[in-house]
Amino acid sequence: MEEVDKILIHALKQVGTEVSEETDSVKQFSSELIVEAVVRCIRVIEPGLGSPLPTSLPPGMSARFRVGMSLAQACQDIGYKGEIGYQTFLYSNEPEIRSLLMFLVEKLPRESAEASDQPTGKSVVLQRAIAAAIKAQLVVPWLPPNCRLPLHGETQSPGSLHSFHAQPLSLPHCTKGPGKNQLKEVQDYQRDILPPVTAQPSHHASVVASILEQHTAELSAAQEWDNEWNSQGLLSRLTPQEYCSRKLTRLRKRIEEQLRSAALPSAESAFGGPRSTSDLSDLLQAFRGSTPSDHILTKGTHFTHTQKFTFTQQQQAAAVTRPSITAGPQSESDIQLCQQEEQLSLQQQFQQLCSDVEQLAADMKHMSVTNAQVLDELKQRDLGNSENEEKMQVKKKTIDLLPDADNNLLKLQVLVEASAKRVVNLASQWEKHRAPLIDEHRRLKEICSNQDLESSRKLSEIKSLHDKIRVSTEEAKKKEEIYKQLVTELENLPQDASRSAYTQRILEIVSNIKKQKEEITKILSDTKELQKEINSLTGKLDRTFAVTDELVFKDAKKDESVRKSYKYLAALHENCNQLIQTIEDTGTILREIRDLEEQIETENGSKTVANLERILEDYKAIRQENSALAAKVREG
Amino acid sequence: MVVLLNRLPVSECLKLCHRVVDGLCGREPPHRGDHGASWSLEEWLELLDSLTALFRRAVGSNSSDEEVLAGLADVDSSHAESVLSVLRARREEIRDALLDRTNSISSATLQDFDWQLKLALSSDKISSLHTPLLSLSLDVRENRALRSVTMEMNREELNTLISSLEAANKVVLQLK
């Protein structure tokens, strides 16, 4: 019972009852304490019911009686099924109070238990923290700026907010490792001139932002590379550097294609105009930064070359024509006229020249095309020519050999045979060489395919390992998070250390109960066996008695002495029956005695005598109060 | 107009060149006041422009040391040497900055962004609103001028924005 009382007292203390340290069982509870505990519990369970009830007993006896009645009523309203009345509180007995308090404590709402059962996660904890912070800020009243204490500055003054602006930082990277030895100038720069990171941004406020930004950028780049390498890079069976360079060339080719396809149509549509080239050069210039154009087009396209060429030609032509015309001084009007004429003629000339140039350009193009065609034709003709020459030589030789036909035929046959032999010989030699070579080839091929298989197997192994690593790191992270969270939760939990003790105690009690149950079943089976034995014995007895009775009765008719013995037998039987009856009666009486003793004990436990005395005293007090009141009425 | 460098001692010249490169890489450019009254305003601007152009050209066309020195023919040899050392030390950084410039070839590029989460407690019509609002400000560089675009979104609008940005990212990934 002590454990139960401890739990009860702990719960009552949490509700707000002031239980002194010395009281550690319900037996020591005074009436005042009981009333206070019950009222506080009712207030927590149902505030509407509990709020009109006082937490302490009033001095007057009749008032106490009334408080007791209302408390009993409230307990019944909540749902207490046991016997309850004013006497429960005023003249307490231990078991009743204990059962009442247990009922009330069980009815108490369990916020903390529900809260800890909620699904947990890092985000949940964070959200709870955010919600708590916002709630706290909402509770704080708004103050005019002049009345603000430094305490409020964080949440209420907008001055402390900086916008988040990042600036590029320059950091000497130590991650590259010692293998890549840097230039001496770079080291000098980093040692002597590069300012520390905190001094690099122009505003002090953007230091944090810049560092965060830099870090995020590097981290995400590393992650992306890791992802790509694991998904595609490993499969390509290249070293990381090779993979990178290959990707770079692929991308370059793509960009080049895109640019070319975008630039070509405009260039073709405005053939000869300076617009397209300037566009292209602009584009190129923008790609190289704003360097002056002279430095860029070191390697011009075919198109720009032709354009340059035509323009320079034109300029040269103009330079040639100018001095020849501006000769011969004349009078001013003449000069003017002359000049106008000259201008006109020059313009005409210029236009003519322009058209000439265009025509010439067109002609040139045409010519170049025809030239190419003619060259092709020439080549073909040359080829045909040489073929024909060869044919002619063969025919010439045959004509030379014709006169001595038979001889030459024989010679030829000999030659043919010899060459056939040679061919056979060579073929056999070739076969000899070929066989080992082919074997070698096959062997190598096999090795190659084996290696291929091996490498692909290893690749898949590596991949699965990577996956495993990822999965396990994720798991580890998750578990670590859960661990941290649980630790924080544990710290946040109220420190009632008796929790584990309770559970241990409960387990002990359960095991005790088990043991007791076992013993009870043992005893039960024992009694059953005994009963069986008794039954069989009584049956045996009855039967033997009947048989003896019959035998003796038969003989008793003939013999006098036997009749006597029959009488004795009957008497013996009767006496034995009586004896058994008496033993059974004694057993029942003993049981009754035990029951009565128990009853006496319980009656003693409920302090009946003391309570009766108290009731008598209270009765006297009420009578005194009544008589005093009656006297007052009479006086009044 | 790099000749104007000759008016400065060599150590100062080194520092100035580093500051010029800093400006090129998006950090704080040098101030005229820090280097005394060696130049008039016009000369100062000219010097800055020519130095910046020099660095850009040298890194952009990947020219060798001899080519750079040829471009610095009219400067003292010691000054030219210091400029060259600055170039060697900062080549990677300048290259990165130029690449960055090339990447932002389109007419408007996103330079930076910032966000704030606000909780609207009430409005002029509803006394208890409790709606979270996100105010997002984008710093957009448009024709070299920085313009700030600010917008405020509720939860659904933010989700729409994020999903459209994710779709854009997918397209970019396909290009790779």
TrEMBL record, chain A:
GO terms for biological process: positive regulation of ubiquitin-dependent protein catabolic process. Residues 128-605 form the CCDC22 coiled-coil domain. Residues 1-109 form the CCDC22 N-terminal domain. GO terms for molecular function: cullin family protein binding. It comes from the Eukaryota. InterPro entries: CCDC22, CCDC22_CC, CCDC22_N. Belongs to the CCDC22 family. PANTHER family: COILED-COIL DOMAIN-CONTAINING PROTEIN 22, JM1 PROTEIN. This is Coiled-coil domain-containing protein 22. It comes from Zoarces viviparus (Viviparous eelpout). The lineage of its organism: Eukaryota, Metazoa, Chordata, Craniata, Vertebrata.
TrEMBL record, chain B:
Coiled coil: none annotated. PROSITE patterns: COMM (PS51269). Residues 109-176 form the COMM domain. CDD domains: Commd8 (cd04756). Pfam families: COMM_domain, COMMD8_HN. It comes from the Eukaryota. This is COMM domain-containing protein. It comes from Zoarces viviparus. The lineage of its organism: Eukaryota, Metazoa, Chordata, Craniata, Vertebrata.
